[in-house]
Write a structure and sequence with these properties.
heterodimer, A: mainly alpha, Ferritin, two-stranded antiparallel ribbon, 7 helices, 2 strands, 2% strand, B: 228 residues, mainly alpha
C-alpha cells in the first residue's frame, strides 16, 4: 500500500490511505518517487463515482468557498498592510461570488446547499494570515483539480474550471505577497475530497 | 553583474546547463512522474493487483472520435507550450531583462513550460499520435521592444494560455487527460497572475470567473508570433 504525504507543510499530518492501490499508480510512485497531480486522481475517479454525483462535488466546493470567504473576512480585523488588505478584500469578494454561483448551481441540480458553518482561523497578524492564505488557496486549487474529472455535467465542469483558475491566480498573488514562488510546481497537485475535508476540519467550529 | 545575470548568461550559452539547472531545482521529476503515470494507466490489458475496478479505459488505443479529438486538443496545447518555451528562452538569451525579479520569474516559468512540453509530448505518444512539430516563432519585434514590452507580452501569452486550457476542459473525453490538462491549466493561471502582479495589473482581470477562449480565438491571437 502506498502512503503519500501532501506537499503543503501545514497539511503534512494528513495522509491518504487505501484508495491508491491501483497497480499503475504503485508503479508510477515507485518510478517517480513522488505522486503528482494526475497520478493521484485516477483512483479517486472510481471512488467518487461510486459515492455520489455532481451535487456532492458542488456542495464540497461550496463548503471550501464559504471557508475562504470567512477567512478573508477575518483579515479585515488584522491590521494588514495596504497591499495585502487590497488583495484580501478583492479575493474575499470573489470567493463570495463563487459561493453565490455554487449555491445557485446546487439548487439547479435539485440539491440542497449545506448550512454555513462557523469558522475559526489561527491568523493573528499579517504573517500568519499570509501563511494560512497560501495554504487555503493552494488547497482550493488542488481540491477543484482533484474533483473536477469526476463531474458528470459538462456545464458544471466548465463552471468549476472558471473558478479554479481564479483560485490559482489568488494562490499565486498571495504567494508573491508572502515572498514565495507563485508557481512552485509545473503541475498543480490534486487532493482527494476526504483529505481536504479532514485538513480543513480544525477551521470549522460548528 | 548580479548573480541572476550571470546565471542567465550561463543558461543562454550552454543548453545542457539549462537541463542541469532544471534537475538542480527538482523540476525534471514532475514531467517524468507525469509521463510514467500516463504510460502506466494507459496499458489496457493490465490487471489491477488488488482486483479493484479499472479506471475508465483510456481512449488512446482506440480509434474513436473522442480519442481523436483528445489527441487534437493535446497537440494544440503542446503547440502553445512550445510557443511559450521558445518565447522565454529567447528572452533569457537576449539579455534584455535586467530586473532580477522579472528575470527570475521568467526562468522559473520557462522551466514549468518545458515540463509541460515534455509531459504533453509523452501524452500524445501514449495516445498513439504524432506530437505537433515545434512551431517556427517570431518574437524578434517583442524582444527588441525592450523589457516592458517583453513583460507585457509574457502576461498576454500566459493569460491567453490559461484561457486556452479553460476553453478545452469541457471538451476532453478521457478523464486522465482532463486531470492532466487541469493540473497545467491552474499553473498557467498562476503564471498569468504573477506576471500581472509585476505589471501592476489586476491578477484577476476577468473578475471572479475566468473567461475561456476557443481554439480559433487563441490561434488568431498567437498568429503574429508564428513565422509562416
Amino acid at each position: 500500500m502506498t502512503k503519500e504525504t501532501l506537499a503543503i507543510p501545514e497539511l503534512e499530518g494528513v495522509e491518504i490511505h487505501g484508495t491508491t492501490r491501483g497497480a499503475f499508480l504503485l508503479r508510477a510512485t515507485l518510478a517517480a518517487g513522488a505522486v503528482y497531480g494526475a497520478g493521484a486522481v485516477a483512483p479517486f475517479v472510481n471512488q467518487a463515482m461510486a459515492q455520489g454525483g455532481d451535487v456532492d462535488i458542488v456542495n464540497y466546493a461550496l463548503t471550501l468557498e464559504l471557508l475562504e470567504t470567512a477567512f478573508y473576512k477575518k483579515g479585515e480585523s488584522l491590521g494588514l498592510s495596504s497591499e495585502v488588505k487590497k488583495l484580501a478584500s478583492e479575493f474575499g469578494k470573489q470567493e463570495s461570488e463563487h459561493v453565490d454561483a455554487l449555491t445557485a448551481t446546487v439548487k439547479k441540480l435539485g440539491g440542497k446547499p449545506p448550512k454555513k458553518p462557523t469558522f475559526t482561523f489561527p491568523a493573528k497578524d499579517e504573517k500568519s494570515f499570509l501563511k494560512l492564505a497560501v495554504t487555503l488557496e493552494d488547497t482550493g486549487v488542488s481540491a477543484y483539480n482533484g474533483a473536477a474529472p469526476m463531474i458528470k455535467s459538462k456545464d458544471v465542469l466548465e463552471a468549476a474550471g472558471t473558478i479554479v483558475q481564479i483560485e490559482a491566480r489568488h494562490a499565486a498573488a498571495i504567494r508573491l505577497a508572502a515572498g514565495e514562488d507563485p508557481a512552485p510546481d509545473a503541475f498543480d497537485k490534486t487532493l482527494e475530497m476526504q483529505a481536504v475535508l479532514d485538513a480543513v476540519k480544525p477551521f470549522i467550529k460548528a | 553583474m548580479t548573480d541572476t545575470q550571470s546565471t542567465m548568461e550561463e543558461l543562454a550559452r550552454d543548453p545542457s546547463s539549462r537541463k542541469r539547472f532544471l534537475k538542480m531545482v527538482g523540476g525534471a521529476g514532475a514531467a517524468s512522474a507525469f509521463a510514467v503515470f500516463l504510460a502506466a494507466c494507459g496499458s489496457d490489458d493490465d490487471k489491477s493487483s488488488d482486483g479493484a475496478p479499472k479506471v475508465s479505459k483510456p481512449s488512446g488505443s482506440g480509434s474513436g472520435k473522442g480519442a481523436k479529438k483528445d489527441l487534437e486538443i493535446v497537440n494544440y496545447a503542446l503547440t502553445l507550450e512550445y510557443l511559450e518555451v521558445e518565447f522565454y528562452n529567447q528572452v533569457i538569451e537576449s539579455g534584455q531583462v535586467k530586473d532580477k525579479k522579472v528575470a527570475e520569474l521568467a526562468m522559473k516559468i520557462a522551466e514549468n513550460e518545458q515540463e509541460h512540453v515534455d509531459a504533453l509530448t509523452a501524452t500524445v505518444e501514449k495516445l498513439g499520435g504524432t506530437p505537433a512539430p515545434k512551431p517556427k516563432t517570431k518574437f524578434e519585434d517583442v524582444i527588441s521592444g525592450g523589457p516592458d514590452k517583453i513583460l507585457k507580452t509574457a502576461a498576454e501569452v500566459e493569460n491567453l494560455g490559461a484561457s486556452a486550457y479553460l476553453g478545452q476542459a469541457g471538451k476532453i473525453k478521457n478523464p486522465e487527460i482532463l486531470a492532466a490538462a487541469l493540473s497545467i491549466h491552474s499553473v498557467e493561471g498562476r503564471h498569468a497572475a504573477a506576471l500581472n502582479t509585476l505589471l501592476g495589473k489586476s491578477v484577476t482581470p476577468d473578475g471572479a470567473f475566468a473567461k475561456p477562449a476557443s481554439m480559433d480565438e487563441v490561434l488568431k491571437a498567437v498568429k503574429p508570433f508564428i513565422a509562416s
